[in-house]
Design goal:
The protein contains 1 helix and 9 strands; from the N terminus they run βββββββββα. The protein has about 130 residues and is mainly β. It has one domain. Strands 1, 2, 3, 4, 5, 6, 7, 8 and 9 form a 9-stranded parallel β-sheet that branches. The radius of gyration is 15 Å and the shape is globular. About 25% of the residues are buried.
Length: about 130
C-alpha cells in the first residue's frame, strides 16, 4: 500500500455500481454498490446494501453492509446492526451494534491498558475463528 492521502479526496461507489480497483491517495471512500478494493484511506463507509471484498486500511470504518477480506481501522471500527465482517479484523477501538457480526481473526491494535498492566491482567482476546 502507498502512503495515505494528502488532501480531502472522496470516492463514492453508488448503489447498483460494481467496481474492482486499487485506490491510492483517496481520503474518504463510500460504497453502496459492489466493490473489490485494495486501498488505504482516512475514512471508509460501507452502506447497508453494499458488499466489499478486499483489503482496507483506514483510520475509521463504518460497516452496515457485508465485508470480506482484511480490514484495519487504526482508530475506530463501527459495525452497525446490519453490518457483517468476515476475515482479518484489526481495530483501535470497536463498536458492534446488536445484530452486527464479526467472523474470523479479530485483533485489537491497542496495547493493554495501564490499569490492566498494573493489575497483571491480560486484555481479553477472542479465540481464532470465534464469532462475536
Amino acid at each position: 500500500m502507498t502512503a495515505g492521502p494528502t488532501n480531502e479526496s472522496y470516492l463514492s461507489v453508488g448503489e447498483g455500481v460494481e467496481i474492482a480497483a486499487t485506490i491510492e491517495r483517496c481520503s474518504r471512500i463510500y460504497v453502496a454498490g459492489k466493490a473489490r478494493l485494495q486501498t488505504a484511506c482516512k475514512s471508509f463507509v460501507l452502506d447497508a446494501g453494499g458488499r466489499v471484498e478486499g483489503t482496507i486500511e483506514c483510520e475509521t470504518a463504518e460497516v452496515r453492509g457485508r465485508f470480506e477480506g482484511e480490514i484495519r481501522a487504526s482508530q475506530r471500527l463501527i459495525v452497525h446492526e446490519t453490518g457483517q465482517i468476515e476475515g482479518e479484523i484489526r481495530y483501535g477501538r470497536l463498536e458492534v451494534a446488536d445484530g452486527g457480526r464479526l467472523t474470523g481473526r479479530i485483533e485489537t491494535l491497542a496495547g493493554p491498558t495501564a490499569d490492566s498492566l498494573r493489575a497483571g491482567v491480560e486484555p481479553y482476546r477472542a479465540p481464532t475463528g470465534a464469532t462475536v
